[in-house]
Amino acid sequence: xxxxxxxxxxRLPFPPDRGDRIRSAHxxxxxxxxAPVHVGCFVDDDANRAxxxxxxxxxxxxxxxxxxxxLPLAGVEAVLKARPISLAAYADARLSAWxxxxxxxxxxxxxxxxxxQMGQFVPQSWQGRLVVDLCDVDSAKFEAYARNARGPMARxxxxxxxxxxQVEAALAARADHTLLISEAEAALFASRAxxxxxxxxxxxxxxxxYFAPDTVKPAAGMxxxxxxxxxxxQMDYPPNVAAVVCMARRILPLVQRDVPGAQFHIVGRAPSAxxxxxxxxxxxxxxxxxxxxxxxxxxxxxxxxxxxxxxGVQNKVLEAMAMARPIVLSAEAATGIAAEHGVHFAIGGDDxxxxxxxxxxxxxxxxxxAMGANARRFVTENxxxxxxxxxxxxxxxxxxxxxRSAA
Length: 407
Known about the structure:
Elements (H helix, E strand, L loop, with lengths): L3 E6 L9 H16 L2 E7 L8 H7 L2 E6 L4 H11 L3 H4 L4 H12 L3 E7 L14 E7 L2 H11 L2 H24 L2 E4 L2 H10 L6 E3 L26 E5 L5 H21 L4 E5 L5 H4 L7 E5 L5 H6 L2 E4 L9 H8 L4 E3 L1 H4 L11 E2 L3 H12 L2 H18 L2 H4 L3 H5 L3 H7 L1
Parallel strand pairs: 1-2, 1-4, 2-3, 4-5, 5-6, 6-7, 8-9, 8-11, 9-10, 11-12, 12-13
Helix pairs in contact: 6-7, 9-14, 12-15
């Protein structure tokens, strides 16, 4: 089946420097190899538009909208229309008109929706192929937020989870294929959306040539007294915030009791006020955004990921594994990665157990080095992006050569 592809994403895929953009950038590149691809997406601010050139180099046409709707306004719209806030936040007449115009041309064979928020732009009249990449089950994430919140926020999160679950299920009932990031997420979604036509797993990959321990020098800010522990991620994202607060305030003191020089480094953009306050804790440094995460990974004696809420596969874990770092992580953060505890990473339980797993690595460098080497070997053999995306033509019902020649 020949024809163009329409790709809709809630964020411009470039630069691929955070989990969703890494996945969407690789998906977009794979789509562009199959057929001409037209991209509709949002940017959070005008500064992000600096990366439109990378998008234009791949896409046959684009519609990039700066998302300026304040969250309170999105909340009011959501209440008035009985829909999730996360959909109201992305509702945009300009993008909707662009999508309608494109699909009316008759040249499109498939629509690829990246993230559930973007399904609202696919008209009910669309009869072509529809593939939806939910990545993970967002509604379940909001349900988890509700369980961990109190007062009005608990009710807001519960409402969001309930309404978003309905949207996800309805979208999956329309889609030829709904993609999830792991077997666990796929099984969870299947239990919540029995009307889904086809639920498939498309895992996250890793560029092991880019994330390689011999490609960069260790970051100067992490060289010297230590050992050094590292957490990476978007630092205004609530699960990441909760993880580093737990690490700095509860786990780090336990580690320092046995390894007095242990230092904890938090690296990632947009640290919240709660995260910035952790810099007042002895041995804790908040670095904020950095141009390249690899030097910090290279400098780390161990990487930690004590996430209590973690949906899908954690790119931060795959990146650390590719950089041959020993990792201590929660069972939640290990979800979707078919690696072995004690061989490729160490899974920690409660605070004391998590700290003990870290100490075990810090006081035994040969064991830590062996774990890092095993981790890199695992991702190079099992988690390459080409392997993860190999099923893309089949999902779209398109053959690369047929689609390109038809275009």
